Amino acid sequence: MQVDLEADGASVEGLPRFQQGQFHARRLRQAGISLTVLAVAGWVLALFVALFAPLSIWPVVLINCASALLLLVAGLQSAWWVADWRAQALEEPAVEVPLEDPGRYARFMLRFAKQIGAPVLWLGGWSLLALISVVEFWNLGLPAAPVGQSASIGAALALALAFGLLVFERRLAQETTAQWPEAAQLAQLSRVAIVCLVLSAICLLFAGAESVWPLRLAVLIGLLPALVSLEFVLRAMLSLFSPRQPRLEPRLMAQSFIAGLLRWPPQPLLALQHELHNRFGIDLRQIWAFTYMRRAFLPVLLVVLAVGWALTGVHEVPLQGRGIYERFGKPVEVFGPGLHAGLPWPLGRVISVENGVVHELATSVSDAATPELAPAEGPAPLIANRLWDASHVNDKSQVIASSSGDKQSFQIVNMDVRFVYRIGLTDQAALAATYNSANVPSLIRSTASRILVHDFASRTLDELLGEQRTSLADEIGRAVQADLQRLDSGVEILATVVEAIHPPAGAANAYHGVQAAQIGAQALISRERGAASEQTNQALLQASTARDQATATAREVNAGAQAANLRFAAEQKAYATAGQAFVLEQYLGQLSQGLAHAKLLILDHRLGADGAPTIDLRSFTLPADPSQPRKAVQ
Q1: CA triplet 488, 445, 396: central angle to 5 degrees?
Q2: Among 118-127, 262-271, 353-362, 619-628, which stretch is predicted with the lowest mean pLDDT?
Q3: Average pLDDT in the 193-204 region?
Q4: 78 within some domain
Q5: Of 53, 91, 274, 355, which is most buried with the most CB atoms under 10 A?
Q6: What SS3 state is found at 157?
Q7: CB atoms inside a 10 Å sphere around CB 257
Q8: pTM, entire model
């Protein structure tokens, strides 16, 4: 029952909690300072470890334990405010001395503190710090990793601190309500810290490279301090709406319903029953319905658990998946899409397998986030940049053959080779993909890397850049598929895409210079070869023309000589036949030919001056040739 100092006849000298108020305040201050140092040290150490090993178990364990200790510190500080008020209530009231005007800011802070109260601010601050710390370090995807000897040391320290808090909790539990009403609530908050420390020690002891459950348990431990801190924050916010009465004995604000559940045997409704009985006079134990529910609760719970356990044997396989049904750990059948019934867990279980889902896998091992899809009308995404002078996310460096003169060497190129694959559609492929390989993408990536190293070891950069990418991709895909089939992986390679093959970004400019020099040299060689070929063709043309002209001239001379020879032979034959007449005829012919276009003046001595020239226009019949016989008249 709260004491009001302004009430008539209020006397606090005979109350044990007021008599021991100063002693309780001193104990709470000492315990609060010690636990604050430990909590802040653990919190700072968690931040420091998170900078170097963010995926280890240490940041989660340290922050959960530090948050639980911060909540206990918040409870101790809240109890200290109550104990200090009781200690001051026994003292004589001090004479108020008028003070000078402290200033506008000081008056505002004093008014703000009076309206809200320092206990509310401290409780809300500690609770928010614990809640934010747990939320920031929450990560259920922590990978398993070895922790070494430091885990045993950390577990020993956690158990030692838990033992000290257990002694503190036992001493608080022995306090009576009349002597110290807040001791029971502080004992419950101590149990929260003890549970977190003990479970964290267990996680550290069993953590290893093959154990994943300690990591999951270490993260889930943070639920307990997170829920308690959330409850404290709500209580601090709701206390703002309650009137401030400085002369009324305050209550402990750091009361937790969740911390009150940490008792044996568990009685979750006990606090609700006490509140209803104290405030409204309702005793739930006198209601027959609640009595019947309490008696029937255990049988009904067992029936519900049995039915729920039996329903674990009903499995639903989605349309895009398949399921491998294991009975007593042995694969029996491959389920298709739909509902299937089997033995309940753990006697039977169904392992999900993909059914025709197509994946694209790059040979690089980059953990970059998946790029967002670019709009059709917007700019191209960065992944579409295929320039050689830029580094790409999916590029992987590869060593290939090289030659310098007569010496063999090697060089490095960047390539982006991607595989489109899926799990085989047969039941045997589903079984092989599930039981023969722990990680299908890693298996494909390692196999492809080995194939690429073996295949590109004998190829030069010029050969890779000059070959057809389609044939190169088909060759790589067939080799990878053959290795996967030999391993009985159950994976089907649908397509192999060679996105890019180019020198590294740093050597791109140098390679461009080498290419430009090679192109220039080849252009000069081709130009000189063209000039030489042109000169050769011109010389051949001139020689052919001269030869043809000489041949034509020779043929003309030869033809003229042959014609003259024939003419001479004909004239010789005619002379032999006609004699002098042929000579005269030739003479006259040559004379008429020579005088055809000449202007002649003919002088005839037989024409006199007395007689005029006469032209005889008479026609005479040629005399008959006596050498030709006449035709007989019929």
Answers
A1: 160
A2: 619-628
A3: 93
A4: yes
A5: 355
A6: helix
A7: 14
A8: 0.52
> Mapped to the 3 state alphabet, what secondary structure does 176-240 carry?
CCCCCCCHHHHHHHHHHHHHHHHHHHHHHHHCCCCCCHHHHHHHHCCHHHHHHHHHHHHHHHHHC
Domain total in the chain: 5
Cβ neighbours of 518 (radius 10 Å): 11
- Assign residue 452 the CATH number of its domain: 3.30.479.30
- The pLDDT of residue 420 is above 80: yes
User: Same domain for 227 and 261?
Assistant: no
d(CA 177, CA 167): 19
235 and 111 together in one domain:
yes
Burial class (CB in 10 A: 0-12, 13-18, 19+), 229: buried
Q: Round the CA-based radius of gyration of the chain to a whole number and report it.
A: 58
Domain's final residue, options 286, 301, 336: 286
Q: How many CB atoms lie within 10 A of CB 503?
A: 21
How many Cβ atoms from other residues are within 10 Å of residue 321's Cβ? 16
Tell me how far apart the alpha carbons of residues 464 and 462 are, in angstroms, rounded to a whole number: 5
Cα(290)–Cα(309) distance, integer angstroms: 27
Half-sphere exposure of 37 (CA within 13 A, CB side): 6
> Residue 273's domain spans which residues?
256-286
pLDDT in tens, 447-473: 888 888 777 777 666 666 655 666 777
Angle between helices 223-239 and 118-136 (to 10 degrees): 150
Query: Are 528 and 565 part of one and the same domain?
Result: yes
- Provide mean pLDDT across the span 285-293: 74
Residue 99: per-residue pLDDT? 45
Q: In what order do the strands lie in the sheet with 321-327?
A: 330-335, 321-327, 348-354
CA torsion 163-164-166-169 (nearest 10°) is 180
Q: Say what the alpha-carbon torsion angle 425, 431, 432, 435 is, to the nearest 10 degrees.
A: 150
| 470, part of any domain | yes
- Residue 251: what pLDDT? 82
Element (H, E) at 558: helix 508-578
Mean pLDDT of 495-510: 67
Name the residue among 423, 426, 419 with its Cα closest to residue 478: 419
In the block, residue with structure tokens 């040391």 = 153
User: CA 576 to CA 180: how far, in whole Å?
Assistant: 176
The residue among 270, 286, 302 that closes a domain is 286
Among 200, 204, 201, residue whose Cα is nearest residue 220: 200
